[in-house]
Structures are given as structure tokens and as C-alpha cells.
What we know:
alpha/beta, Rossmann fold, seven-stranded mixed beta sheet, 7 strands, 48% helix, binds S-adenosylmethionine
Amino acid sequence: MTATGPVVAFYDTHPINEDQILRALADRGTAADALTEEILKDHDQDHFGGIEANDILIAAAGIRPDHVVLDVCSGMGGPARYLAHRIGCRVVGLDLTESRHASAQRLTRLVHLDHLVEFRLGNALEMPFEDASFDVVMGQEAWCHVPDKPRLIAECARVVKPGGVIAFTDILRRDALTGPEMERLTREMTFPDLETLDGYARLLAANDCSVLRRDDLSELWARILIQRLEMYRSLGSDTARKFGTARSQQWDATYAFFVERFAVGGLGGGRFVARRAD
Ligand SMILES: C[S@@+](CC[C@H](N)C(=O)[O-])C[C@H]1O[C@@H](n2cnc3c(N)ncnc32)[C@H](O)[C@@H]1O
């Protein structure tokens, strides 16, 4: 098993975190004990495109109230809570980073969704679930951190039921990405390896999953990420206070480099919806 230390350290010092979310809400006049999912959902989504992106995935995957859904690399649990709140289904979130896992549990209790949403601490490459446990397996902008994509997709296909759906979005490698740029992304963004649009399609097919939908999100994300860099810059003093000036400055340089790769065609994004054979 590859070392998980760098990705855990990355998320332990991430500018988007539970304290930052609760402080932003308090500044807007919502105390933690008055928090509802209707309010929280616009502040806790750590992927591109916010709840609209969740809605597209939910509709494309056909998620229903009687489904049990697994969110692989669930972070602080924003999408898992939103799904349970909007659809009423049960959701399990799996994440490797203890600080993210603990935040996910606390935020879920705060908005009283813990009867529908539970979190497990664990690695996506060794999922702590029986075969065929879930109707839908999903993920958003997180599988880029997982080193062994063939094993990741094989794990998703193992835990989804026959006839069930795997639906995800992820950051992808494109032709213009150079070796040194990939090395910097590995070091600074903890992307050990990135898949391509064709590569994910091949991996799904190799695991008996037929691709129902495959969308290239590269142009959309290039636009969204310009706003996201501005959002991170607005959090700069917050990040410096919590994790130190060096981390805040390093984050800014790294994220600007990351966003630029989308503008020049080195990085892109993709959405996949696939069905496991019956
Ligand atoms: C960008 S966050 C995504 C959070 C969530 N999808 C959302 O939209 O709010 C990425 C998460 O992936 C988790 N992660 C990275 N590698 C993992 C692995 N091998 N197994 C489980 N979780 C992992 C990190 O701990 C982090 O919380």
C-alpha cells in the first residue's frame, strides 16, 4: 500500500475546513446550534460547481429514496449530507483523513442528519465493505488523490450491486501536461497519478461497467477555477492565522499553478456515469 501521509497532511492544513465554515456562517449571523442543512449546503461542498454539480450527478445516477449510496473520499461530508437531505436516501461516506472524518461527523450531527448519513474512516483502495453493498457509488474531485486507479475502479465495481451505478467527477490529465508539471502536482497537490477521460472509460469497461454518460468538463472547470482561486485568496488571512503564513503563501502559489494548467490544456475534468452488469 502506498504512503497516505502526504494527502492526510494536505487535508489537515486545507484552507477549506470546519472552523472556516462555521466562522463564515457565524459572520453571516448563523450560530452553530441554529444551523440547518438548507444553510450549510452552500458552504461545505469541497468540489467544483457546488450543489448544482451534485444535482447533475444525482439525476444522472437516478438516485432514489430507497437507495443506499457510498461517497468515496467524502471529505467533510457536504455531498453526502446534501444527498440525504434532498433525496432522503441513506448515505455512507468513506474518507482517509481523520480530521476530515471527524468534521464530517460533527457537521452531520449539527444539522441532525446522522440518522441517514454515516462516515467510515478508511482507504478507497481497501474499502471496508462487503461485495455488492451499495446501489450507487459516487465521488467528486477526490479520486485524483488515489494512486492506483485500476484498483480504485475495481473496488467501486466490487462494492456496487449488480445493476448498480458508479457516478463520479474527477480531475484529469490532458495532452499538454508535461512531466515536470505532473511532478509538481504530485508534490504540492498530492495527485500521485491522474487518469484521462479515455483511461477511466477503459477501466470501467474492464470491470464490467457500461458507460451511460461521459462528459468532458474541462472548459467549464477552467472558468469555475478562476473564481475558486479568488475565493481561496479571500481566505488567505484566515489560512495564515490557522496554519501559518508559509502555508498560506504556498497554497496560493500552488493553486495558481493548478488553475493555470486548466487554462493551457494540461488538466481537465470529466464526469462518468456507468452501470455494473446484472
Ligand atoms: C477534495 S476532498 C473531496 C471532498 C468531497 N468529495 C466534497 O465534494 O466535498 C478529497 C478527499 O479525498 C480524501 N482521500 C484522498 N485519498 C483517499 C483515499 N485513498 N481513500 C479515502 N479518502 C481519500 C481526502 O482525505 C479528502 O478528504
